[in-house]
Backbone:
């Protein structure tokens, strides 16, 4: 078992390997994390782990009205996550490699990171200015018939895109060709589909690529059938999520 200790960044979203994560960092605990990461030489990876929040708040109550007018302000690395923060997070997350960390004039940060490797959360340490975690890296096993499943998922995903574009009364963008490597396909589709956090988390922690692709194939068929019955959908980008504010 390979383990690593990294800063921990909990979010109300799921990060997948290979996907880009933009962050706008304003809470002091995460600003401290970014200042620490900036101490890493530029030729070395500036890594932190992202986990989805199961029970808690991405932004801790810091003052009356922020974000809840009735909330009591909280301080510290584990603010908003209870007395045992490890219980507030899903157990499988993803390492992020920060390609860009830019400090603004007001001390907040703009960060652009990319998911790299899945990890399992073993323990959380809240004794410092920001959360850190002991993590076990998870291999990505292909599973049975991953190649054939990937082809089926790509066909269904293209149909899903067309239905979604039609429901929004807009043209389907014709960007770069979709990949054909099964693991990459499984993560791209998981990130691009309009799914809730628990469903995306289930896809992230699938035991192997083939299992994830089988799940996605069922989801794509179901979602495409639902979209077919809808007259319109809110205008939002298919493959780009909003910037996370922390």
Residues:
């Amino acid at each position: 078992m390979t383990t690593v200790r990294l800063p921990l960044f909990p979010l109300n979203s799921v990060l997948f390997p290979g996907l880009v994560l933009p962050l706008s960092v304003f809470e002091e605990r995460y600003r401290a994390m970014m200042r620490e990461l900036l101490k890493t030489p530029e030729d070395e990876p500036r890594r932190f782990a992202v986990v989805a929040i199961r029970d808690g708040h991405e932004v801790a109550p810091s003052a009356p009205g922020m974000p809840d007018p009735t909330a009591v302000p909280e301080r510290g690395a584990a603010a908003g996550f209870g007395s045992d923060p490890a219980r507030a997070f899903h157990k499988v997350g993803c390492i992020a490699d920060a390609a860009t960390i830019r400090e603004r004039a007001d001390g907040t940060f703009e960060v652009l990171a990319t998911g790299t490797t899945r990890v399992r959360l073993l323990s959380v340490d809240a004794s410092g200015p920001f959360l850190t975690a002991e993590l076990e890296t998870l291999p990505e096993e292909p599973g049975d018939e991953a190649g054939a499943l990937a082809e089926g998922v790509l066909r269904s995903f293209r149909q899903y895109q067309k239905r979604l574009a039609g429901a929004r009364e807009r043209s389907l963008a014709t960007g770069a060709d979709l990949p054909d490597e099964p693991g990459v396909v499984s993560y791209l589709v998981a990130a691009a589909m309009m799914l809730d956090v628990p469903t995306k988390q289930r896809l992230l922690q699938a035991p192997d690529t083939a299992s994830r692709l089988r799940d996605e194939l069922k989801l794509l068929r179901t979602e495409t059938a639902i979209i077919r019955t809808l007259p319109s959908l809110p205008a939002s980008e298919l493959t780009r999520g909003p910037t996370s504010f922390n």
Observations:
- Strands lie at 3-11, 20-25, 47-52, 92-103, 109-125, 132-137, 244-245.
- The first helix runs from residue 28 to 37.
